[in-house]
Design goal:
By secondary structure, the protein is mostly helical. It folds into two domains: 13-95; 98-208, no CATH class. The chain contains eight helices and two strands; from the N terminus they run H-E-E-H-H-H-H-H-H-H. It has a two-stranded antiparallel sheet. The longest helix is centred in the last third of the chain and has 28 residues, at 139-166. The radius of gyration is 19 Å and the shape is globular. The two termini are 37 Å apart. The relative contact order is 0.10.
C-alpha cells in the first residue's frame, strides 16, 4: 500500500497549472468587469477591486486545498503564497484599503530572495532542496541558478513596488496577472544554457 506522505500522488501538469493560475486569471477577469462599480456591504462601500480581492482569497484557499487533496503535499512556495494572500488580502478587505494586497508580491519575492540569499551565504542552494527531483543539476549549476534567481526575485520585488506606487490599479492588475507570470517563464527560458550545461544524465553521478 502506498504511503501518500512519502509518495505524493502525481498530478497532471495542466491540472496543476490551472489550479495555480486559475484564481489569478479569474481575479483579472472579475476586476475588469467590476472595476467601475461600488458595492455596499454591511453599510460600507467597497470598490470592485476590494470585492474581487475577497473572492480571490476564497479562490486561493479552495485551489490550495484541492492541490493538497490531490497530491498529499504543498510546497513552501504554495504555503507562503497562501499565508500572504490571506494576511495581506484580508487586511485590504478589512481596512477597505487596496494597498495591502498590492504589497503582497513585494513581500513574497523579498522572502524568496532573502531565503535563497541566506543559503548562498552558507554555501548552499536552498533552490536545490525544493527542485532537485524535477530538475537534476550538478552542484555548480545549482549555485549559478540560485544566485541568478535570488537577484531576479529582488528585481521582481522592486518592479512590483514601482508599478503599484507609480501607476494605476488597472496597470498593476495587468502587471500582476501577466507581467510577473511572463517574467518568471522568460527567466527560466533564459537559463537554458545553464540547465543544459550542468544537467545530470539519468543514472550519472553528481560531480563534487
Amino acid at each position: 500500500m502506498t504511503d501518500a506522505k512519502t509518495n505524493p500522488a502525481k498530478l497532471n501538469p495542466m491540472v496543476k497549472l490551472g489550479l495555480e493560475l486559475g484564481p489569478i486569471v479569474l481575479f483579472f477577469a472579475g476586476f475588469r468587469f467590476f472595476k467601475d462599480q461600488t458595492f455596499q456591504i454591511l453599510g460600507r462601500d467597497y470598490s470592485g477591486f476590494i470585492v474581487m480581492t475577497a473572492i480571490f482569497i476564497a479562490l486561493i484557499i479552495a485551489t490550495t486545498a484541492i492541490l493538497w487533496k490531490l497530491t498529499g503535499k504543498l510546497s513552501k512556495m504554495q504555503l507562503m503564497t497562501l499565508v500572504l494572500v490571506i494576511v495581506m488580502g484580508g487586511l485590504s478587505v478589512w481596512l477597505n484599503d487596496e494597498r495591502f494586497i498590492k504589497m503582497k508580491p513585494t513581500l513574497l519575492y523579498l522572502a524568496f530572495g532573502i531565503m535563497l540569499g541566506i543559503g548562498l551565504l552558507r554555501g548552499e542552494s536552498y533552490l536545490k532542496l525544493v527542485m532537485e527531483e524535477t530538475l537534476p543539476l550538478q552542484p555548480a549549476g545549482w549555485m549559478i541558478l540560485t544566485r541568478r534567481l535570488c537577484a531576479f526575485f529582488f528585481g521582481l520585488a522592486l518592479a512590483n513596488e514601482v508599478i503599484w506606487r507609480l501607476f494605476s490599479t488597472d496597470t498593476w492588475v495587468t502587471f500582476k496577472t501577466f507581467g510577473l507570470t511572463a517574467a518568471l517563464f522568460l527567466f527560466f527560458i533564459s537559463q537554458s544554457g545553464v540547465l543544459s550545461r550542468y544537467a545530470i544524465e539519468e543514472g550519472a553521478p553528481e560531480n563534487d
